[in-house]
Write a structure and sequence with these properties.
Layout (H helix, E strand, L loop, with lengths): L1 E7 L2 E7 L2 H11 L9 E9 L8 E7 L13 E2 L2 H4 L1 E2 L2 E2 L1 E4 L2 E8 L5 E8 L9 E7 L3 H10 L1
Antiparallel strand pairs: 1-2, 1-3, 3-4, 5-9, 6-7, 8-9, 9-10, 10-11
Bound molecules: zinc ion.
The site of zinc ion has 7 residues, from loops.
Length: 149
């Protein structure tokens, strides 16, 4: 284990971890970063405690939203073409940029889960990140849930 100084948002902390990336992740996990409805990113500056502070690097850590609870106990994510759209042989998958978005819907409560494999960090414009967000059930998904019961 090495000792690292982690810095973000004007705070810093010394953390023991096997690597700078792990130290950054631990720093974020121990902080009180609120969950938003969509993934967002914090850049943590990390350098070894016994090295020049200039010799550090930025590590980006994703903060994912907690999965909202399901009315029926557990979500059952599926990709019914009539609800999620897209190509019939690959429903709910939408290629864009250098990646794709994938939409699934819960067969129990009708909630949508949107996984984005080409997300952009609005802070610095970095592309190709992964993000996840959830959307409430709508008429379309609810009538599909009712029809499959
Ligand atoms: Zn559900």
């Amino acid at each position: 284990m090495e000792k690292w100084i982690c810095r973000a948002d004007g705070y810093e902390e010394s953390i023991s971890a096997a690597s700078a990336r792990e130290a950054a992740e631990e720093y974020i996990a121990s902080g009180s970063y609120p969950e938003e409805s969509e993934t967002y990113w914090i850049s943590v500056y990390v350098h070894p405690t016994d090295a020049d502070p200039e010799d550090g690097d930025f590590y980006k850590v994703a903060i994912d939203p907690d999965e909202p609870s399901c009315d029926m106990g557990d979500h059952d994510w599926q990709s019914p073409h009539e609800v999620v759209g897209g190509l019939e042989e690959n429903p709910g998958v939408f290629a864009y940029g250098g990646g794709a978005k994938k939409i699934t819907v819960c067969a129990n409560c009708g909630m949508y889960r949107i996984w984005d494999g080409w997300a952009t960090d609005p802070e610095d414009g970095e592309q190709g990140l992964e993000s996840v967000s959830y959307r409430d059930a709508d008429e379309k998904s609810e009538s599909w849930v009712n029809a499959t019961k």
